């Protein structure tokens, strides 16, 4: 049984045993972006600087502003394709050379990879891999079958990276078990839950509408199930997120109020006002948008999958991701039941406090200390 890394006690001063500089990879496409910046903020009071190497696509103007606000983060941007994209391997090789050149130039104390394949590079410094998601577990959850043979090259490269890493972590026990089952046993891997800062998301006066946030075209998020039910629900539905698919085309959003992609400050206002947050996900290794909604005092309606049960059992209403009828019935009943809404909001808000930025920071400082052979600093 794997346990999450515990939080220790408190110091706001930069301890001598925290790493001075971390080379961290990230992409600006999904939740890893918010995760990386949240962790960077938590590490700043401990004197930790982050060299953030991005791949996948160019940053948006809003993302550039976010980086500029973090004094301890230096951005190194690229557009190399990511390992989970179609036919990425030439780019993955080039981005590996680029990352090694950054290591040689910057001389970090450790490397923190939010991906797998690059862990097999000949790093001079200790290497941590964080398993946020993977193609094979996505395929099983979304397609309901084992990944096809054409993804064997991906599996081999990911397994090689995991084997080469000095330490592996994951944001939920459910995700870690997927990695162990699909790639390697990894007996020493750790779970550190993700977090969002409580000052950014706050409860407020609730209004009678339903909110969902995420890539609308993504079958894993399954927001389409909510969209298909929208005309039959008593409350209006608002959806924030991209509708355009990377390969062309767009998701159907008839029946909902489309908000488009929102920057964090604007999105926080919608969370604050929404009475109910819905994400009937088929696959969600952690779910930062769910945590943001819980911090904002929304009642949660979530897909009944192992990771979300692990994190939110007893604090959310769960529905079968494959049953649009069940989703419709549960939402209609919840919209009519003010007492149940209030109870779910209270439970979600209380549970959200378990996923604090201080706890996540302490967890990663403990992992970094193991990699660097030092004693972890205390965190408040």
Keywords:
38% helix; 380 residues; 6-stranded parallel sheet; 13 helices; alpha/beta; disordered N terminus; 2 domains; 13 strands; 7-stranded parallel sheet; 16% strand; Rossmann fold
Descriptive overview:
β2 (49-54), α2 and β3 form a beta-alpha-beta unit. The strands form 2 sheets. Strands 3-2-1-4-5-6-7 form a 7-stranded parallel beta sheet, with helices on both faces. The protein has a 6-stranded parallel beta sheet with strand order 10-9-8-11-12-13, sandwiched between helices. α1 (31-43) packs across α13 (357-372), α7 packs across α11 (324-335) and α9 (288-295) crosses α12 (338-352). The chain has 2 domains: 21-195 and 356-372, Rossmann fold (3-Layer(aba) Sandwich); 207-352, 3-Layer(aba) Sandwich (Rossmann fold). The longest helix is centred in the first third of the chain and has 18 residues, at 89-106. It has 380 residues and is of the alpha/beta class. The protein is globular, with a radius of gyration of 20 Å. It has helices at residues 31-43, 61-68, 89-106, 135-143, 152-164, 173-182, 223-229, 264-273, 288-295, 306-312, 324-335, 338-352, 357-372; strands at 21-26, 49-54, 73-77, 110-113, 127-130, 167-170, 190-191, 207-213, 237-240, 257-260, 274-279, 299-303, 317-319. The two termini are 27 Å apart. Residues 29-194 form the Glycosyltransferase subfamily 4-like N-terminal domain. This is Glycosyltransferase family 4 protein. Keywords: Transferase.
């Amino acid at each position: 049984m794997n346990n999450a890394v515990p939080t220790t006690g408190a110091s706001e001063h930069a301890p001598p045993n925290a790493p001075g500089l971390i080379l961290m990879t990230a992409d600006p496409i999904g939740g890893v972006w918010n995760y990386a910046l949240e962790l960077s903020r938590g590490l700043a009071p401990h004197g930790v600087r982050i060299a953030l190497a991005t791949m996948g696509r160019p940053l948006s103007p809003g993302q550039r502003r976010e980086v500029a606000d973090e004094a301890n983060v230096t951005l190194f941007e690229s557009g190399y394709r990511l390992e989970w994209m179609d036919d990425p391997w030439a780019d993955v090789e080039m981005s590996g050379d680029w990352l090694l050149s950054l290591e040689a130039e910057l001389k970090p104390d450790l490397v923190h990879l939010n991906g797998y394949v690059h862990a097999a590079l000949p790093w001079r410094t200790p290497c941590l891999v964080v398993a946020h998601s993977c193609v094979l577990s996505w395929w099983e959850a979304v397609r309901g079958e084992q990944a096809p043979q054409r993804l064997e090259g991906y599996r081999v490269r990911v397994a090689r990276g995991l084997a080469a890493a000095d330490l592996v972590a994951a944001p939920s026990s459910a995700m870690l078990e997927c990695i162990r089952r699909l790639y390697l046993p990894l007996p020493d891997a750790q779970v550190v839950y993700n977090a969002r800062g409580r000052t950014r998301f706050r409860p407020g006066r609730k209004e009678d509408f339903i909110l969902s946030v995420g890539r609308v075209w993504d079958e894993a998020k399954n927001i389409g199930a909510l969209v298909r039910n929208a005309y039959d629900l008593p409350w209006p539905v608002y959806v924030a997120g991209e509708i355009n698919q990377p390969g062309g085309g767009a998701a159907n959003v008839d029946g909902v109020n489309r908000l488009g992609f929102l920057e964090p400050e604007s999105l926080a206002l919608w969370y604050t006002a929404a009475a109910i947050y819905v994400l009937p996900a088929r696959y969600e290794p952690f779910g930062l948008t769910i945590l943001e909604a819980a911090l904002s005092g929304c009642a949660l309606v979530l897909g009944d999958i192992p990771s979300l049960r692990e994190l939110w059992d007893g604090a959310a209403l769960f529905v079968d991701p494959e049953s649009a009828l069940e989703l419709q019935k549960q939402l209609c009943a919840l919209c009519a039941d003010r007492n149940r809404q209030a109870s779910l909001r209270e439970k979600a808000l209380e549970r959200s406090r378990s996923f604090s930025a201080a706890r996540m920071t302490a967890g990663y400082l403990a992992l970094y200390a193991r990699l660097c052979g030092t004693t972890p600093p205390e965190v408040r």
